[in-house]
């Protein structure tokens, strides 16, 4: 039992705990987006491949740590287990292969491809591989099990970086700088998206034979009698956002291609908070007390609190439907 606990309390278990914590951090927006992006990088590009490599090769590397692997090719490696460089390269390569395959599985199973489903799939893959790594480690003698000691790896890196010549040292330094630059550029590009990438959408829908569609709206109303409409909001702001919807019926006057509101009846205000990437449908029962022809049923969508008198110029999003309201 003690030997099994030693096999279980290891770096694969620590990695699985990190993956679970990273999944929660990414999903629930508890940190800024730039921090979530940095947390997501090892989750996507390292963790699943490393767990698979560790399940297949749980042995500690017993060979030397010279430059033969880098300069002489894979056939000159000595000792059992994987060289640390081999382990890292395979982990990244397998992670890059696993993520697209996981995306295909998600699409086949659910018919859609969303970050939440992919995130859940990555956490599940690591969680399913964890028992295999523990069992594989348990079946090895303790002195042959892979043990990750950060200080030892840092010392080995320090011995590798200064090469046997000035040219070799420059090459090693260039390799490290290139990797760091590529990782930094990727993180910067993902963490700071281009302007215009974040937005919200609003759509007015109506029910036809049990399906919501964006046509065939009711346009003839009777004062005091409700007609059903659905307002759909989608948050693509990359952050949780609070919206306020103001519903009005307006009598307008058109002059020189400009629409002026001459009379307004406000039907209601509703506030809703949406997590990033989510969609909410607000069921509306429209009953106007303002009567007449060519009235404008308007929905003004604001981020946060709206002004006292909403308008197209101040709204973040606005929707309009021309209606006729007959007296009761």
From TrEMBL:
Keywords: Membrane, Transmembrane, Transmembrane helix. The chain crosses the membrane at residues 38-57, 88-110, 116-135. InterPro entries: DUF1616 (IPR011674). Residues 16-324 form the DUF1616 domain. This is DUF1616 domain-containing protein. It comes from Halosimplex carlsbadense 2-9-1.
């Amino acid at each position: 039992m003690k030997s099994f606990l030693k096999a279980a309390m290891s770096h694969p278990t620590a990695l699985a705990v990190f993956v679970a914590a990273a999944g929660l951090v990414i999903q629930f927006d508890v940190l800024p987006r730039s921090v979530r992006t940095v947390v997501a990088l090892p989750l996507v590009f390292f963790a699943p491949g490393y767990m698979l490599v560790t399940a297949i090769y749980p042995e500690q590397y017993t060979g030397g740590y010279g430059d033969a692997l880098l300069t002489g090719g894979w056939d000159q490696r000595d000792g059992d287990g994987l060289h640390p460089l081999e382990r890292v390269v395979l982990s990244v390569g397998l992670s890059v292969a696993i993520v697209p395959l996981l995306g295909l599985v998600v699409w086949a199973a659910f018919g859609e491809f969303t970050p939440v489903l992919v995130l859940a799939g990555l956490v599940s893959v690591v969680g399913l591989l964890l028992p295999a790594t523990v069992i594989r480690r348990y079946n090895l003698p303790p002195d042959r099990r892979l043990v990750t000691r950060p200080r030892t790896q840092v010392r080995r890196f320090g011995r590798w970086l200064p090469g046997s010549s000035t040219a070799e040292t420059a090459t090693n330094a260039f390799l490290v700088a290139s990797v760091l630059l590529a990782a930094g550029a990727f993180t910067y590009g993902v963490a700071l998206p281009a302007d215009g990438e974040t937005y919200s959408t609003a759509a007015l829908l109506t029910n036809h034979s049990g399906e919501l569609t964006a046509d065939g709206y009711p346009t003839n109303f009777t004062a005091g009698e409700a007609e059903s409409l659905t307002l759909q909001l989608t948050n693509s702001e990359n952050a949780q956002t609070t919206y306020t919807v103001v519903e009005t019926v307006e009598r307008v006057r058109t002059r020189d291609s400009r629409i002026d509101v001459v009379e307004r009846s406000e039907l209601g205000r509703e506030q809703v908070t949406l997590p990033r990437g989510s969609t909410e449908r607000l069921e509306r029962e429209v009953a106007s007390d303002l009567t007449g022809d060519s009235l404008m049923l308007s929905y003004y969508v604001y981020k946060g609190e709206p002004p006292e008198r909403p308008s197209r110029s101040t709204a973040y999003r606005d929707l309009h439907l021309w209606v006729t309201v007959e007296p009761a």
